[in-house]
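Narrative progress, year one. The postdoctoral researcher (J.K.) led the effort to move from monomer predictions toward full complexes, under supervision of the PI. The following entry was the first complex the group processed end to end, covering 1247 residues in total.
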Amino acid sequence: MATRIGVDIGGTFTDLVYYDDETGETVEGKVPTVPHAPEEGVVAAVSGHVPRAVIEKAEFFLHGTTVGLNALLERRGAKVGLITTAGFRDVLEIRRGDRAEMYNLFWRQPEPLVPRHLRLEVSERVKADGSVYRPLDEASVAPALAALQAEGVDSIAVCLINAYANPAHELAVEKLLRAGGFAGGISLSHKISGEYREYERTSTTVIDAFVRARMSNYLKRLDGRLRELGFRGTSLITRSGSGSMTFAEAEERPFETIMSGPVAGAQGASEIATQLGIEGLVTADVGGTSFDTALILNGQPQVLYEGVIDNMPIQTPWVDVRSIGSGGGSIAHIDVGGLMRVGPRSAGAAPGPACYGKGGTEPAMTDAAAFLGMLGPGKLASGINLDFAKAKAAIEPVAAAIRQDVETTAIGILRIAASSMANAMREVSVEQGLDPRAMVLLPFGGAGPLMATLLADELKMNRIVVPPLAGNFSAWGLLGADMVQSSARTRIMDLGDANLAVANGILADLFAEVAARGDHLEHGTVRSARLDLRYKGQEHWLSIDTPLAGDAIAWTADEAGAAFAAEYLRTFGGTMSEVVEIVSIRATVRAPLPRREQVFKAADAVAGDEIFDAYSFEEGRRMPFRVVPRAAITKPLVGPAIVTESTATLYLDAHWTAETGAKGELNLIRAEAK
Amino acid sequence: MLDRTPVLHRAGVARSGDAAKADPITTEVVRHALNSAANQMKRALVRTAFSPVIYEVLDFAVAIYDPQMRLLAQAPSLPMFMGTLNFCVEEAVKNVGGEANVFPGDMIMYNWPYGTGSHPQDLAVVNPVFLEDGELIGYTAIKGHWLDIAGKDPYCTDTVDVFQEGTIYPGVKIYKRGELNDDIYRMVVANSRVPKFVAGDLNAQVVGCRVGATSFQEVVRRFGREAFSHAVEAMFDHGERVVRSYFEAIPDGRYVGRGEMDSNGITDDPIPFEVAVEIEGSNVRLDFTHVPETQAGPVNCPVPSTISASRVAISMLAGYGEAPHEGHFRPVEVLTRPGTMFHPLPPAPCFLYGWPALQAIEVIYNAIAKALPTAVPAQSGGCIASVVYWGTRQATGEPWADGSPHPTGQGAWNGGDGGTMLHISESATRFSPIEVWESKNPWIMDKMALAQDSCGPGTWRGGPGIDFHFRMTEDTYITTAVERTKNAPWGLVGGGTARPNGAGVRFPNGHFVSIPKTTRFLVPKDAVLELSTGGGGGYGPPAERTKEAVESDLKAGYISEAFARANYPHAFE
C-alpha cells in the first residue's frame, strides 16, 4: 500500500530502495555519493533505478542525509550572532569544563560556532521558577542588534537563562530584533528545546541557526529536482529520534535531523523485529569506516534525549546508536609499542582496500577477509574484482613487524576488529541490564553479513537474522519511517495530583505547539506522552511512557509513582522511599505511513554452485566453502558457505546453518555448542 | 625513633606469565576485553549511584587487578584515583588476613588514608574474584567519594589530625561470602550526615564490583588462565615500551620543578616544595625527598597519592592517550621520605591531600620543561577551585548540600593557545549547569564569564580564567578549597604569567572578605560568593605572537587594549 522511494546518502554510496505497491516488489540500487552536490547523487539514483511510472505514482519520498551533519562538521554554515543574558555570554565557550579526550594533556575545546565578539548580552533575568528577577531592559537590545548587523550576521540565536521556565523575554527580544529591521533567521532557545541546562540548550539553538539556511536550500533544491523527475508525493526526511518529518518541517527544525544518519538502520531493525516477533535484538551495521550498533527491545529502538556531535551537545531526541571507528576499510597498523591495532583510520572510498585495486596499499580489514577467502572467488556484485595478490602484499609488512605469517596476521586483523565491535554491542545491551547471549543479532551494511558469525561467536549468540537487502538495509528501513513530531518542556515539581494537572496543562500546550508546526496530520495521528521522573534530589531521570485519555495523562499521581517505581526497580534493581518529582513533560504525535506488504524478489540471476577454499574460524583451518547465491537458498544451507547477493557477502562459518524465512530473511542458527 | 630513610616505590615488577608465549593478536583482544569489563563496572556504578559526586562529578575510580595487584584495566574516571587503587587493594586484603582469608562473595571496605592515599571520605570497596575451582584470579575495586562520613564538617580545610576527618574502616568485610554483614552496615549508616546517600552509594559500589567480576571471569575463562596470563604480561610489556619510547627522546639529566602551596589551612605561611625528575635512558625517577616536613594542617599527601600524581603526570604525557595499566607505570620510580608532606605518617591530617598532589603534577611538568620545553604546557590556574555549600532550606526545613570543582585557564604550549577547563587531575569531570544549580540551590548567579586579561601572554597565550558570582538567596555555609591564590601561573620559554585564583564573599554593605581556604563560613542572604579562577600561563615570547592573533583576542575581548599595548606593543606598530 502506497508506493514509496527511499534514498539514504552515506559517506561512500548513495543507496536506494523503492517499494512498488502494484507489483509488491522491493527493488534496490546503489550509486556513488556526490560529496559536493549530494542531491545530484540522489537524482542519479532515482533516475537510474526507478521507472518514470513508479516515480509518478509514488506517494512518499523518504530521505536520509548527512547534509546538516556535514555542514556542522565542516563548519560550513551561517554566520550566527548569539544574544544571551547579561553575565552569560561565555556559556557556549566554557561548556561543562570536561575534556573529550581525558588522557590528552593538550586537548582544547573546539572553537565555538559563534565567536566571542558575536556573542552579546541583554539586561534581563528570569529565575528557575519562571518569575522575573530583572525585567528585560528593551534599550539593551538595540546596541546588540546594531553590533550584529554591523558584523553582517545571517541569523541570530537567542538563549536566555531559565527561558525554559518562562519564554517571555526571548519572545520580546525577537519582536525587538524584527522591529529593529533584522530580516534573517531567528532561533529562540525555548522553541528549540523546552529543557533546562543552559549550555546544552544554547549549543542546540546555535546549531539550529548555523545549519538552517544550508539545510533549507538543500531540501528546496532536492525537492525541485524530484518534481522535475515527475514526483508528485510528499517528501520526508528522517529524524534523529526515529520517524520522519516533511521537508517543510525540517526546514523549520533542521537540528532534529542532524543525528539521523544511523537511524534508518535502527528503524528497519525495529520493523523486522516486530514482523518476526523478536523480543531482544542487537544490530551490527558494518560499513566502510564505522560500525554502528543499537538495541531493539519489543520492536522499539532506545531513544535518548541528548546527544553530542563533534563535542557539541544537542538537546533533541535521538535513537541510541553507538558508533566506533571500525569497518571494512579500517587499516591495520603497528603502534609505537609494537602491537598491531586495527582502525580507526580507514582507507575510505578512495583509495579503498588494497584488494580493490584502486591504488590502496595499506592493509584494510577487507584485505584480510579477501585473503582468507571470506569474500569468495573475487567477483563482487558491485563490479569489483578482488586482487588477492595486492591484499597479501598489503598485509605482509604488518605481518613481518609482529613476526607472524600473513595468514595468522589476517586472522588477527579480523579477530581484533570483531572484538572491538563485540565490546560495543556488549555495552549497549549490558547497560540495559540485558545479556546479549539471549538476543538475536541483526547484521547489515556492506560488511555486516561478513562479520556476522564472528560477532555471534564473540558474544556467544546463537541466532542471527540477516535481513533482506542487507547491504542496502538502511535505505529499506527508511521506507517504514512514520511521520513524527515531538516537543518537551522542563517543569520541576513534586509528583502529586495538583501538579499532574499542571503537567496536563503543559501537555495540552505541547500538543498545540506540535499541531501548529506542520500540515502533516492528515493521515490519522496517534498521540503519546512521557513523563521524566526521578527521586527528589537526584539528577538523572527515567522517562516513563504514560497512557492518555484524550490529551491528558490517564494516571493519578499514585499510579504514575507506581509506574516509576516499577521501572526504577527494573533498571537499577532497587527503589527508594523518597518523594518523586516531575522533571519534564514530553509530547509526541505520530502519523503512521500506510503499511507495506513485503515480497522480496531476488535481483540476482542464479549462478551455479561452486567450491572455494576459505578460512574457518570455528575450525581454525582453511577448508572448502560452498559459494551460493542468496536467492538459491530454498532449503537449509549447512555451513561452511559463502552466500552472495548484490550488495553484500555473507560468510557462513562451519557449524552454522542458514534457512530462508517467511519474510525473505535468512535465519542463521548455530548447529551445536562447540 | 622514626626511620627517615627515603623509600623507593616501583610498579608491578612481579611476573605471572611469559610474554614471549603470548601472540600479539590475543594480547590486543585481551586488552580490549579488559577495558570493556572496566567500562561495564563504571556504567553500573554511575547508573545506580545516589549522589551527584559520583554520577556527575565522577569522583571515583573503577579498576581490575590481578592477584599480584597489578592494574589490568580501568575505566575513564578520576585520574587522581587512578594510581592509588592498587594500594587500597593491597592494604584491604592484608588487613583482613591476607589472600588466605578472602573468599568468593567477600566485599572489603577500606578507607585508612595512609593506605588509600585519600581523605577518609574516599572509600574503596574491594572484591576478590575467583573461578569456579576456587582459584583467585584477581580483584575488582571501586574507590568513590562519599558525601559525608561524619568528619568534623562535611568538608574541611582545618583538621589537625585524621580522626577529625571521618570514620575509619580499616579493611572490614561488608559482605562475607555473599552475606551482608549487618553490624558493619549499621555502623556505616549511623556514621553519616546523609545516610541515604551513603547507603545508596555503597550499594552502587558493590553492584559495580560484582558486574566487573562477572565480566572479568568471562575474559579469563574465554582465553584460559594460561594464555590469559601470558597475554597480560605481553600487554604490560607493550605499555612499558610505549612510555619508555617517550622518555628515550628526552635528554638524560636531573631537572628540578618548584611549586608552592598557599598555606596549610591552619597558618597562612606559604609552603614551597620541589620535585626532581631524573631521566636516565628510558627510566624516570621522581624524587619527592626535598619537600617540607609533615604539616600541621590537612595538606599532607599520603604516599599512594604521591605515587598516583607521578603516574598521572607521566601517563598523560607519555601514554599516547591510552587508558593506563600497570605496564605504563613500570618505567616510573618514586622516591619519598617518611615524615614529609608527601609521605605523612598517621595521624597527620590529610583532608586536602588532593591539592598538593594536583599541584605536584604540574611541578613535574615544570621540571620536564627544563629538559624539553616543547614537551609540556605552561601552568594552568593550578587548582580545582572547589566550593562545598550546605544549609537548611527556609521553606521546608530540609537540609541541603552541594559542591563542585570549577574550571580554570589552561597553559599554552608550543603550537597552541590554552583553553578553559577543569584541572588535568579531574579531566573527565563536568561541573553543573547554572539552570540545574538554580533549580535546587538557594542562589541566583550574577555572572559566569571569562575574565578579561586573565590569560598569560605569549607567542601562544594561556586560556582565560572565569569569574563566578553566586548571590545567595538564603543563609548558606560554605567550605572553600582554592589554592594557588598567592602565586601566578607560570609561563614557559618567555611566556608571561596569568591571573591567580581567588575566592571571597562580598557582603550587602560592599565589604569584601577573601576566603580562599576556609571551613563552615556563613554567607548570609544577599551576600555574593565571588570565585575568580586563574588563567593559564603563556608560552614563548609575547613579542612573537602574530599581529592577527593579538587583534583577534582584542576583538573577542579576551584582552583589553591596555593589556595588549603593555604585552604586545609590536601589534600596534
